[in-house]
From TrEMBL:
Record's protein name: UPF0434 protein HHL10_10830
InterPro entries: Trm112-like
Gene Ontology CC, one term: cytosol
Domain of life of the organism encoding this protein: Bacteria
Amino acid sequence: MSLDHRLIELLVCPVCKGPLELLRDTQLQPRELLCPADRLAYPIRDGLPVMLENEARSLDAPAAPLSPTPDDAAAI
């Protein structure tokens, strides 16, 4: 079963109501809907998105530490 692309345009993140991005697997099949703001990935099962916060996969925090900005250095 394939996911209707018109549906993706209507869906928003259930947490922040922000836009979602479609992630595909290696066979280019829809796999997850990603909320970049909350760093959550909602699974797509049997062609249907599971838009439940407790079913979402949390993305890891960035591995590289953030470098201080000039404003941060001035505050020290």
